[in-house]
Amino acid sequence: MASNKAVKLVINQEPFIKLTIKQAPKPPVRLLADHIDKYSQIYENKKARVFKKLVAHKYCLEYERQLPTEKLLAVDIRFYLPIAQSISANEQLKKRISQLCPDIRPDIANNLLYSRYDKAIIDALNGLAFKDNSQIIASQTQNIYSDNPHTEIELTEITEM
Length: 161
Fold this sequence. Notes:
With 161 residues, the chain is an alpha+beta fold. It has helices at residues 46-62, 89-96, 116-125, and strands spanning 9-11, 17-21, 32-36, 39-43, 72-82, 136-146, 150-160. Helix 1 packs across helix 3 (116-125).
């Protein structure tokens, strides 16, 4: 019979993986499909595919000798999103000084654990930094406007106490 005893988990203070992707994040959109005769081919859009490959390539460059961990993980991702040039100067200023938060759809409430931006990062690191994405039991995501669009990723191991 399984025990209902609570286990205290502790997130280590120092992340074991820190990555900075110096490009605006590209979220995956829904999968696309081509139908030819009786056959269908399903694929994702090119920008999202290229962004995933960039994340995986950056990880391989910086952590080439590190094997995928099997421990539980917490992920902290900060997306620095570009400010639209089509909005007023006043709106741009408010976004620059963080008075306005990004209103990206679908929002995180529509997907309990991952937003659409998170999913691209998690998918790219799956099998490289960790064996399976089911190891991620805590996540934190921030969407921030910036004149310098980029993505910062931190993975931290969680230990039982």
